[in-house]
Design a protein that fits this description.
The protein is mainly beta and about 350 residues long. It is about 10% helix and about 30% strand. It has a six-stranded antiparallel β-barrel. The chain has a six-stranded mixed β-sheet with strand order 5-14-13-17-18-12, with no helix packed on it. The protein has a three-stranded antiparallel β-sheet with strand order 15-16-19, with no helix packed on it. The longest helix has 12 residues, at about 330-340.
Amino acid sequence: MRRGGDGGAEGGPGNGPGHRRKHRHRRLALGGTAAAGVGLALCFLMAPANGASAGTAPANGASADGDDGGRGWTSEAAARYWTAGRMASAVPAGPGGGKAAAAPTTRTTTAAPGAAGSAQHFEGVPSVGVLFSVDQDAKAHHCTASVVRSPRRNLILTAGHCNPGSRAAFVPQYRSGAPDQPYGIWAIDRGFTDPRRTDTGPGSDLDFAFATVKPDGEGRALESVTGGNILSRTPGYTTDVTVIGYPTARNDPADQAIRCAVRTTRLTGQRQLRMECGGFYGGTSGSPWLSRFDERTKTGYVVGDIGGLNGGGPSGPDSHRTSYSPYFGADVFRLYARAIVG
């Protein structure tokens, strides 16, 4: 269903007819690669010590409703726009995309979440939610994101290939069909990616991104409402993590959070982790990989996110069973430092 690959060996280029990703890939707002040379209207560039630059851009374009994606796109505007009906029907148009790409609804060869060896449906946690946005006329649940602790308490983490586009919003602990979301609806402000990120090769090891969100109508910062996870270096290629994500309703009709506790391994040939757990269909790109997850606080140390090679995994009918994550080291902390400065 999803993130890339041509139906051949795992880790190959993602250009063949089987190409799918765990999210719908679009270089609109959260960056893209500097080499693309397509003028993504980057607002600011910072040169880290290694000579690379971190890209940042507004995460929202003009709105048909009159919100200009800047001053007019507030969390109150996001809550008015993203009604329960719009969120429930927000699925990517067509088959394209990454871990948010749609799986055929007629598929019978793969296990649903909750089956043996698969993720379990559950009520979710406040620090993990769904990214919603609009691309032209298509309203879509693109990816999963999570709150990370930061000085301004306004930062979320997702995959670098997740590009929210216009009228983008983050909905923590999303509840499908709920008239009111338990932790509100938050307007995406600015996004930050490493411009060296690519879908394949060494650049796919940089598939992480941060975005700032605007305060709610009461002036509160996101993290003060939801709590947050601590951004941490990956402790090793073999580590125990809890992965939490939101498949799209097209891929998983329950339209509910899933979780999986799993031990990771290394993805051969890449600076990436690999996990084997079914149910991580389209929509789960950006899902946090949490070490030392605390059931009491519902938070942990985020040491990875679903992303990496081909947008987060292989292709083929069982692709939802295998997911990748970048290895968090100095590069992710350089980007984090850029994001917290804003």
